Amino acid sequence: MGRLFSTSHHSNYQLLVTVLLSLALLAVDLRSDVLSSVRHVLSYATGVVQRVAYSPFGLSAWLGEGLSSHTTLLNENRSLRQQNLVLSQKAQQVAVLTAENVRLRELLNSSSRVTASVSVAEIIAVSPDPDRQELVINRGSRHDVYEGQVVLDAHGVMGQVVRVGAASSHVLLINDANHAMSVQDNRSGLHGILSGNGQSRLMTLLYVQESSDVQVGDLLVSSGLEGRFPKGYPVARVVKVERSRSSTFLSVYAQPEAHIQQASHVLLLSREESAGIIRESADVE
């Protein structure tokens, strides 16, 4: 117990000395500038201590900000990639629409040059049979489409309607192996029968005499003699003329003027125009 009180008494004495010393320093500081340099030096020391004490919090904030920035960049990068995909897809659509608009303008310009009444139809399918050159359009009987109706594109004759449904129809193309039509050489006036070979870009002009005036580059147009196709429409262009010693006929090959493989829309010639051709043919006879 005595030791305890002795220790307490010593502590009280130290506290008293400390208080008196502090009061003395305060009095000196108030009345003179002796301690200003000491205070200035101590401010540096306390600043270092403060920075050391604050460094864990600053490091934590810096790491948090860095992680937040990294997450933000990842999210922005992901968003930009998604936007890039969307824009790429839209760019592809724009390219497709641009090409389709070009074809439609060509088709409309062609229809303005045609004196007969025409209607526009869209190609919605093609025949999967490689031996059948046929396509399907989105017009049928309720649109006044009929069997035998002539089908054109912006460049020439494509074929004719062979089957009609309520809302769609099948078109047999001129290059089909079962299709043939009467044509005339636009340069020499030679008449002939142009037959399909079942190939997309090759047709044959049948029974052309060896002495006939036909040359590579000649344009073959519809003659109107069979009473179905209107007269004077581009059909095909001669690409090869071969002479054979074993035959009295020339082998004449032509390519369709119509862009059969690239067309997306077609023109349907009116019934009145076809009827006019039939009447004209009957008058000639």
Topology:
Layout: H1 2-31, H2 36-113, E1 118-126, E2 134-137, E3 150-152, E4 157-164, E5 169-173, E6 180-185, E7 191-199, E8 202-209, E9 219-222, E10 234-242, E11 249-256, E12 265-269, H3 271-284
Antiparallel strand pairs: 1-2, 1-12, 2-5, 3-4, 3-12, 4-5, 6-7, 6-9, 7-8, 8-11, 9-10, 10-11
What's this, in brief?
It contains three helices and twelve strands.
What do you see in this structure?
The N terminus and C terminus are likely disordered. Strand 6 and strand 7 form a beta hairpin. It is rod-shaped, with a radius of gyration of 48 Å. The protein folds into 2 domains: 59 residues; 167 residues, Rod shape-determining protein MreC, domain 1 (Thrombin, subunit H, Beta Barrel). The longest helix has 78 residues. It has 285 residues and is an alpha+beta fold. The chain is built from 3 helices and 12 strands; from the N terminus they run H-H-E-E-E-E-E-E-E-E-E-E-E-E-H. The strands form 2 sheets. Strands 1-2-5-4-3-12 form a 6-stranded antiparallel barrel. Helix content is 43%, strand content 27%.
Low-confidence parts: 1-5, 275-285
- Helical content (DSSP H or I, runs of 4+): 40-55%
Number of beta-strand segments:
12
Total helical segments: 3
Reported by name, the CATH topology of the largest domain is Thrombin, subunit H
The largest β sheet comes out as: 6 strands, antiparallel, barrel
β-strand percent reads 25-35%
Q: What is the mean pLDDT?
A: 78
Taken in chain order, the helices and strands follow as: HHEEEEEEEEEEEEH
The secondary structure category is alpha+beta
User: Considering the protein shown, what is the CATH homologous superfamily of the largest domain?
Assistant: Rod shape-determining protein MreC, domain 1
CATH top-level class of the largest domain: Mainly Beta
Cα-atom radius of gyration = 48 Å
End-to-end C-alpha gap: 151 Å
